[in-house]
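Key idea: predict the complex, not the pieces.
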Amino acid sequence: MSSAIVVGAGPAGLMAAEMLSAAGVQVDVYDAMPSAGRKFLLAGRGGLNLTHSEPFEAFAARYGSRRAEIEARLKSFDPQALREWVHGLGIATFVGTSGRVFPADMKAAPLLRAWLHRLREAGVRFHMRHRFTGWSADGALRFATQYGEVQARADGVVLALGGASWSRLGSDGAWVPLLQARGVAMAPLLPSNCGFDLRGGWSGYFASRFAGQPFKSVAIRFGPFHRQGEFVATATGVEGSLIYAASALLRDEIALQGIATLELDLLPACSMQHVLAQAAHPRGSRSLASHLKSRLGLAGIKLALLHELLPKPDLHEPAKLAAVTV
Ligand SMILES: Cc1cc2nc3c(=O)[nH]c(=O)nc-3n(C[C@H](O)[C@H](O)[C@H](O)COP(=O)(O)OP(=O)(O)OC[C@H]3O[C@@H](n4cnc5c(N)ncnc54)[C@H](O)[C@@H]3O)c2cc1C
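Result:
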């Protein structure tokens, strides 16, 4: 193969362009947007989580039902290889307290700039504002541009058109029917990192006081998934890194059952016996809130959650309190 077209200038397309170019292929990248990597740049606003430093086994488990398919590829380009690739662009990385890996300045723009520069230097050509609209009768790729239709062909084609979220950044999923029309079997596009609504929602009090606040150092159990970390309450449910890590499993369960129930451990460092003993400890004249705070460190959003979940009388019964805490 001496020439290739990559459609989509997000990170997937840019990486494909880099690999092809390194193999001596002349690469032309096309994208509908005026500039490359717009969603990638947005990801930079949240600090740009590049990968995770956890042991490989835990990392591979994140891919859920796709693990078998993806694991071999991960082994040939593992999280450490990704970090080295980023370092090769002149961007330092660090491991955050959660084990996640970020660029030192927590921004995507310098990385993207360096990457595009390196690609251009290697001879990759970019054609922005070219919207892929399908194939001509003789198999050329068709692009809509402000000057009318442009057609292009090459020895190889990579479609790296992204998913269907944040369409204003370019990935609108409009390519799905184009491939279906050519007889390509398509799996439905599904959200991969998502927050969830709570059945019945939070109480008005909880939502107004605690939306946006973190549940820190908690653990979630859902089927084979068991992990410690943190997430935040939203006005209607939950989101954040620990929820995202479980989101593919939760999503699949909701698709099947209409609902998913996860177990939340508010005190993952404590055994059930310890929580029970502390909750049952005589509290004298102290309020329940100050008792739970001093004996178990339960306060703020964690305490509020207990009030959300338990009828008032049960809060005073150590066994029921411990059962809903751990
Ligand atoms: C708010 C937010 C925060 C995120 N944070 C992180 C994070 O911290 N870490 C992380 O790893 N990921 C993060 N992501 C996810 C990450 O941005 C995506 O996984 C990544 O951009 C996907 O790359 P891609 O190349 O597959 O698709 P995209 O980045 O979506 O690129 C697809 C490209 O194809 C182009 N395109 C689509 N259709 C056509 C067409 N018909 N013709 C021509 N061009 C077309 C689009 O314009 C786009 O440039 C975040 C995403 C969001 C929205």
